[in-house]
Design goal:
By secondary structure, this protein is an alpha+beta fold. About 25% of the residues lie in helices and about 20% in strands. The model has no long low-confidence stretch (mean pLDDT about 95). Its cofactor is FAD.
């Protein structure tokens, strides 16, 4: 143990002001705000610390590319994922006739998924806060008439989050409220993106430079999908957890998985966690769940007791339900003959079809180059082994027909439904990795809107060679999971109140994307950060005013 590092037993003996479970955008920003206000904060992180100085961390490339030999066994592969800030959880998709198991491409470690994100930090539209009116026929969706807070209420917290995260970019010309944001400018569009910008503008559309939490240092590669090896990516680890630890006295227990919460009828009493095969019972005045919209509801459902037979804070039976994940359809295009896109360059935003002809669809963003084939082959599963076996021939085909284009992400908003949900596993893990189950089916509303949206985008891109490189129908494509512990005014149809406190538990809060009552059509990071700052200010007054 390094000098000054907190031991697990020291953490167990203390009574903390706040225990924050998870260090992603919600937990990192909230914990930083409360630590800066003088509160005793303990971050509990399931993944490994990837903060500066941590040995063995994989940076500057995805682990499949940085350590190709790790694919020789599941154990070495999962170790590489963990050292790269990636999740090793196993999700069992029970949506179809046959269950499918996969490891999601999400973060686990300091910063959570924000440590891997493409740094898009964009405000939601003002109309996103009154979502039901945006859809002609929501069917049996539970999408509400309105969020319990408005854009105007969140706006000052958006501004604080933009400043903390160093967001730079251009205003969306289709949003009147964006003109007042006044972000610092981002660099000009890259050579990879400029031809598409000119094409879109020539069609009377309105591309703009996405707001990015990036410092754009010399040689910045934007590091989408992997940990940054420079000081340019602004995320929950660098801008939240790290200063909370080094400047404001917060503490961190990494590689510490929370198993359940012990509570009486009104308060969480203990956070039960596993740390290097030891079981801990941690205590705090306030407990904040920020473990992500997949894991947070599972923790609550696993916290069943005599007082809580259906799971903690689950009097509404909404915990784990209303799962949303966006419908992400990547399309690769070749805007210029002979030009090869080789870098990640998420720059372009296009919202001309966000609201279109009285219906709501989503956004389009440039993503960058398709990853090298080794990203697929250097895995220990049967697909990786099969691709490695025919690697020379397949690599030639892959390099000739699949690489060199610019990948666009077409992101359709999905609606919440009670039957789309996250559940605890039905049997224990055999290798120690966390397991959970999910059920997610497309409903008629999503099927129809996605088809119209994709048809319009393909029409816009008609002059270019194009190719789909993924499908929004695939549940393994978990882009922006949210909604599984929604907030609202009515305890019968929500888990949390408008301050993100559990309706039924006085000292329990949730600040990850679980709280979203609708997914909107945009990246969630900035809204999670802004809301975490809002909730931290409320907690500071409600629980620590004296």
């Amino acid at each position: 143990m390094a000098d000054g590092e907190l031991s697990a037993r020291e953490a167990e003996r203390a009574v903390w002001d706040v225990i924050v479970v998870g260090t992603g955008m919600g937990g990192g920003m909230l914990g930083h705000s409360l630590a800066r206000a003088g509160r005793r904060v303990l971050f509990v992180e399931k993944g490994r610390s990837t903060l500066p100085g941590t040995k063995g961390t994989i940076r500057a490339a995805m682990p499949e590319l940085a350590e190709p030999l790790a694919a020789r066994s599941p154990a070495t592969y999962y170790d590489a994922l963990a050292r790269a800030g990636r999740s090793t959880d196993e999700i069992e998709d029970i949506s179809g006739r046959f269950a499918k198991r996969f490891v999601p491409f999400i973060g686990a470690g300091t910063g959570g998924s924000s440590a891997l994100y493409g740094m898009v930090c964009e405000r939601f539209f003002a109309q996103d806060f009154t979502p039901r009116q945006n859809f002609d026929d929501p069917g049996d969706s539970t999408v509400p008439e309105a969020w319990p807070i408005s854009y105007d209420q969140l706006s000052p917290w958006y501004a604080q989050a933009e400043k903390l995260l160093g967001v730079r970019g251009a205003p969306d010309p289709l949003r009147p409220e964006a003109a007042d944001v006044n972000l610092p400018a981002a660099p000009p569009f890259s050579a990879d993106n400029q031809p598409l910008v000119e094409h879109l503008t020539g069609q009377g559309l309105h591309p703009y430079h996405l707001p990015m939490a990036c410092d754009y240092t010399d040689g910045c590669a934007t590091c989408q999908t992997y940990l940054c090896d420079k000081s340019c990516k602004n995320d929950a680890a660098r801008n939240g957890v790290l200063p909370a630890l080094t400047e404001h006295g917060a503490q961190l227990l990494d590689q510490c998985r929370v198993l359940r919460l012990e509570a009486d009828r009104t308060h969480v009493q203990h956070v039960i966690a596993e740390h290097h095969n030891d079981t801990l019972a941690l205590k705090a005045k306030v407990v904040v769940l920020a473990a992500g919209a997949l894991v947070t509801p599972v923790l609550l459902l696993n916290s069943r007791s005599g007082d809580w037979p259906n799971g903690l804070a689950n009097g509404s039976d909404y915990v784990g339900r209303n799962l949303m994940r966006h419908l992400l359809d990547p399309i690769e295009i070749w805007p210029e003959r002979g030009h090869k896109t080789t870098a990640a360059n998420k720059e372009i935003g296009l919202n001309d079809f966000y609201f279109w002809e009285g219906q709501k669809y989503g956004t389009v963003q440039s993503f960058g180059a398709i990853p090298p084939m080794q990203w697929l082959t250097n895995r220990p599963d049967w697909r990786g082994k099969a691709l490695r076996a025919m690697s020379p021939a397949v690599r030639q085909i892959y390099n000739r027909f699949f690489t060199g284009g610019l990948v666009l992400a077409v992101m359709t908003e999905d609606l919440p439904y009670l039957d789309n949900r996250v559940l605890p596993p039905d049997r224990p893990s055999l290798d120690g990795r966390q397991r959970l189950r999910m059920q997610y089916r497309l409903h008629p509303n999503e099927i129809a809107r996605r088809a119209v949206f994709l048809r319009q985008i393909k029409e816009v891109l008609k002059p270019f060679r194009r190719m789909p490189v993924g499908s929004g129908e695939a549940n393994a494509n978990l882009g922006h999971v949210c909604g599984t512990c929604r907030f609202g005014n009515d305890p019968k149809t929500s888990v949390l109140n408008p301050h993100n406190r559990a309706h039924e538990v006085d000292n329990l809060y949730v600040v990850d994307t679980s709280f979203f009552p609708s997914s909107t059509g945009l990246n969630p990071s900035l809204t999670v950060a802004a809301n975490a700052l809002r909730v931290a200010a409320h907690m500071n007054q409600a629980h620590f005013a004296n």
